[in-house]
């Protein structure tokens, strides 16, 4: 067990924003809320999945909706604990700990806020190892664990419980409620036992986020050395170096949807990459051919600082490096590809692991 203090929050916010593959919300907003909670209530205890009580109940707390909405529609502040306690009351069982449902600038921070305010441990795991846009896109779904009952609330005080026949219906009904709540809501879902956390979650994501953030924020290392360490710790691949020359982005049905065009610089001069996203970056095409495909992570970082670039912060002229990280093994199964592969999102490509695309020369 270790504790998350202000310095750890700074690192986790940056690292989780990278793993968030462009989604998961603005890291600055999430960080400031978590820092405020830790300053008021003290550091948060972190436990590994191996340390959970197998018979106890654990659940995540998260934001749902279009990440860009939170830039203008700030949380009131009491939603996180309110939604958590609503689910606890409905279950009639004490919830013994909290964890992130995904990596992302905001959704990595909300469980820290809940843990600080309720003096609960934060479990070092999540349900994606990255961020995905829909509720059923979690490893708990792959293991037959229900997203419901789930609690949902907004900043006005509207709150409710959703129970559904399956996880796709949970996404549909919760998304509809989220749109009516102003395209952003707070949820607590996927209540599960400690045994299920051990079996179904992706372990050590909080720790990985903290280590990634520590590298990116280091003042002792040069940019290239940071980048090399970043690729080493994540097993990632350097795909492209360029400047954003076009961004098309809309808010549709509670999602940020769109694409960006990146024109090559340096060794990639004369080449072009298009990246399509739905909250998160989903596919990257170089000169029309795939160089990375969901569920593998497609991440953008600032050329100079290596700060992660989220889909709501894309702008013309920004110079970025595109990298891809292999997804967790759970996503590379048949059910994983069926749930989050390119064809699910409407792209007519067969999933090919990024390491195979690189090996076959797609990124040269």
UniProtKB/TrEMBL annotation:
Q: Where is the S-Me-THD N-terminal domain?
A: 8-163
Q: For the S-Me-THD-like C-terminal domain, which residue ranges apply?
A: 166-354
Annotated protein name in UniProt: Uncharacterized DUF917 family protein
Source organism per UniProt? Tetragenococcus muriaticus 3MR10-3
């Amino acid at each position: 067990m270790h504790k998350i203090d202000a310095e750890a929050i700074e690192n986790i916010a940056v690292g989780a924003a990278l793993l968030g593959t462009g989604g998961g919300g603005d890291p600055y907003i999430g960080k400031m809320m978590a820092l405020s909670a830790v300053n008021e209530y003290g550091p948060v205890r972190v436990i590994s999945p191996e340390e959970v009580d197998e018979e106890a109940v654990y659940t995540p707390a998260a934001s749902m909706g279009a990440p860009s909405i939170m830039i203008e529609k700030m949380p009131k502040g009491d939603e996180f604990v309110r939604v958590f306690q609503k689910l606890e009351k409905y279950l009639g069982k004490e919830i013994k700990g909290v964890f992130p449902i995904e990596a992302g600038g905001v959704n990595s921070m909300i469980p820290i806020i809940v843990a600080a305010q309720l003096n609960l441990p934060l479990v070092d795991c999540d349900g994606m190892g990255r961020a995905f846009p829909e509720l059923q896109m979690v490893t708990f779904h792959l293991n037959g664990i229900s997203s419901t009952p789930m609690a949902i609330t907004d900043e006005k005080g509207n709150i409710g419980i959703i129970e559904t026949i399956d996880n796709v219906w949970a996404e549909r009904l919760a998304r509809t409620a989220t749109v009516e709540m102003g395209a952003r809501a707070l949820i607590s879902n996927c209540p599960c036992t400690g045994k299920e956390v051990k079996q179904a979650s992706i372990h050590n994501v909080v720790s990985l986020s903290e280590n990634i953030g520590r590298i990116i924020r280091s003042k002792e290392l040069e940019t290239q050395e940071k980048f090399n360490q970043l690729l080493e710790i994540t097993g990632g691949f350097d795909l492209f170096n360029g400047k954003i020359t076009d961004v098309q982005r809309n808010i549709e049905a509670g999602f940020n949807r769109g694409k960006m065009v990146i024109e090559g610089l340096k060794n990639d001069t004369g080449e072009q990459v298009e990246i399509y996203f739905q909250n998160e970056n989903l596919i990257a095409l170089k000169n029309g051919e795939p160089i990375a495909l969901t569920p593998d992570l497609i991440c953008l970082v600032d050329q100079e600082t290596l700060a992660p670039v989220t889909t709501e912060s894309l702008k013309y002229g920004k110079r970025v490096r595109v990298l891809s990280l292999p997804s967790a093994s759970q996503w590379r199964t048949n059910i994983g590809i069926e749930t989050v592969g390119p064809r699910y999102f409407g792209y007519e490509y067969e999933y090919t692991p990024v390491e195979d695309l690189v090996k076959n020369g797609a990124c040269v």
